[in-house]
């Protein structure tokens, strides 16, 4: 039985779907406040739904019972439900989860994290402390250091609006980033769950190539045959936002944007040698998004 934490999210729901397709028994931790359509989608994927909350340690003891493995993807950075915070979810919630899983005899724990060496912020600090706790837990573990999701960071939600022909870029946009598809992160998470050579390791998870955001814009312009207006957020402004922010979430997002400006290249050779998967390229992503534009025109 594989317990998925964060099952209603973008990455977690994809992991549930792929686990079901691989014949795994799946249990999904969900909250009573979750979107009913997302809950029904999880049921359709064959998941057993259990109600609980990372912010409620007492609920976790029952949730982990009978599970031999955990894949954890939840984060307050996207959920933004009442009471969710980096401290309550990404830090304390995960520490309680690891304790409950180890106590229940869970043998394998897959934890989705972020790239190393990011600008210091509450999120990176929480991820580091949770990773340390997991390493010391006695459970077999795999930590996935996942790069920036192309479906999130190259989307209108964060100012990259190809359909509106206007994009916002952090810094000059000239520094390469290993943008990765959340679908590939899901596939790697599922594969490493039962893969002996991936145990007790931290694996880089990125796309097949490192590419500058400006290059991504040019690819979209070629695909849609239209020019795209570019708004640059100066690195100085991002640094000031990072230094002056007092809210943990604001400081963390400022740090992530600073890392986009600085670039975040990753080498996937070691990961692909262990887990040979076909990674989604930026060209494939550009083609998919451009085709959606044509369909919606």
Structure explained in plain terms:
There is one protein chain. By secondary structure, this protein is an alpha/beta fold. It contains 13 helices and 10 strands. The protein has helices spanning 10-21, 36-44, 57-64, 76-79, 86-104, 122-135, 150-153, 182-193, 213-224, 235-244, 248-262, 269-274, 282-296; strands at 2-5, 26-30, 48-51, 69-72, 108-113, 140-146, 160-161, 166-170, 201-205, 229-233. A 7-stranded parallel β-sheet has the order 3-2-1-4-5-6-9, with helices on both faces. A 3-stranded mixed β-sheet has the order 7-8-10.
Topology:
Elements: E1 2-5, H1 10-21, E2 26-30, H2 36-44, E3 48-51, H3 57-64, E4 69-72, H4 76-79, H5 86-104, E5 108-113, H6 122-135, E6 140-146, H7 150-153, E7 160-161, E8 166-170, H8 182-193, E9 201-205, H9 213-224, E10 229-233, H10 235-244, H11 248-262, H12 269-274, H13 282-296
Parallel strand pairs: 1-2, 1-4, 2-3, 4-5, 5-6, 6-9, 8-10
Antiparallel strand pairs: 7-8
Helix pairs in contact: 1-8, 3-5, 5-6, 9-13, 10-11
């Amino acid at each position: 039985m594989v317990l998925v934490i964060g099952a209603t999210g973008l990455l977690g729901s994809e992991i549930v779907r792929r686990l079901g397709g691989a014949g795994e028994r799946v249990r999904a931790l969900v909250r009573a406040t979750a979107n009913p359509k997302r809950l029904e989608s999880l049921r359709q994927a064959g998941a057993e739904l259990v109600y609980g909350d990372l912010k409620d340690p007492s609920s976790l003891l029952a949730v982990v019972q009978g599970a031999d493995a955990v894949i954890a993807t939840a984060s307050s950075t996207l959920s933004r439900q009442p009471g969710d915070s980096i401290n309550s979810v990404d830090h304390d919630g995960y520490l309680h989860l690891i304790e409950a899983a180890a106590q229940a005899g869970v043998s394998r724990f897959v934890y989705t994290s972020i790239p190393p060496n990011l600008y210091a912020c509450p999120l990176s600090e929480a991820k580091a402390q949770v990773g340390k706790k997991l390493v010391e837990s006695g459970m077999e573990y795999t930590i996935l250091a996942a790069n920036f999701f192309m479906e999130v960071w190259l989307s209108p939600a964060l100012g990259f609006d190809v359909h509106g022909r206007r994009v916002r870029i952090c810094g000059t946009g000239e520094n390469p980033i290993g943008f990765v598809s959340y679908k590939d992160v899901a596939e790697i998470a599922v594969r490493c769950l039962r893969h002996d050579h991936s145990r007790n390791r931290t694996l880089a998870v990125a796309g097949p190539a490192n590419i500058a955001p400006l290059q991504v814009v040019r690819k979209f312009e070629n695909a849609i045959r239209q020019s795209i207006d570019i708004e640059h957020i100066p690195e100085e402004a991002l640094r000031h936002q990072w230094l002056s922010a007092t809210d943990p979430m604001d400081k963390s997002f400022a740090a992530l944007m600073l890392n986009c400006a600085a670039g975040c290249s990753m080498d996937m050779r070691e990961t692909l040698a262990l887990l040979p998967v076909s990674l989604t390229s930026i060209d494939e992503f550009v083609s998919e998004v451009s085709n959606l534009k044509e369909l919606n025109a």
